[in-house]
Design brief:
Elements: E1 5-8, H1 12-24, E2 32-35, H2 40-50, E3 53-54, H3 58-63, E4 67-70, H4 77-81, E5 93-96, H5 103-110, E6 116-120, E7 130-136, H6 142-153, E8 156-160, H7 166-174, H8 176-193, H9 198-218, H10 223-229, H11 236-246, H12 249-268
Parallel strand pairs: 1-2, 1-4, 2-3, 4-5, 5-6, 7-8
Antiparallel strand pairs: 6-7
Amino acid sequence: MNKYIAFIGAGSIAEAIIAGLVRSGIIDKSQLTVTNRNNYERLQQLKERYQINIIYDKEELIKHSDIIFLAVKPNDMEQAIQPIKKYLRSEQLIISVTAGVSTTAIQEFAGLTIPIIRAMPNTSASIGYSATALCTGTYAKEEHLKVGEQLFNTIGTTVVVDEAEMHLVTGLSGSGPAYIYYVVEAMEKAAVEAGMDEKTAKQLINQTVLGAGEMLNQSEETAAELRKKITSPAGTTEAGVHILEQNNFQNMVVDCIYAARDRSIELGK
């Protein structure tokens, strides 16, 4: 792809995307530049790790960029756009990976009729397994969406949704890996407390999670159907699932996703 890409923000999600793009080879390292507010040490880390460019001169950064990634905290969005506002051009493309902030708000901060795509990837982008949802702003056309899909397809899979669904996406797949890791933590704790060595437990659990994910991908059966197939009456799995049901595990997960969604809505305000 013959595009120069600027990253404003150098946190974990920015690094995950950078890592995925570099790994895929779709963009040459020389076409990637990153900046942040004032953490030069962090920029140096990214430069050394991925051999990309770093810069603090916002005018130079924006002048030579075709795509501007906004990867900042929601409360910092307006402050991040302010110093680059006068250098933005309507033929550029803004891609925001910031939770909660609408394309309308970004448009207002930019003060320009510029195409905007909002994306919600997750940190699995760094190994090419992100689940990313995309939506478009008022001035983004099909060609801009295709660029977004092309970029994010290099770091996983993409879906296009209405912007109204992005808060739910944030709670579902944006934060989703953390929920899975939390469950894995509990499984590892159980194994080690029962006397298994940590390395063996990790190998068994990680492969179990990978296998379950592949079953969900490859099977035409629903998650509920797959669960029921391995839950024999009065068997070991049923005993375990019974404890999950007793403790309202499913409702807890639902509440967890809704809480993250609601927080995304709050951040947007």
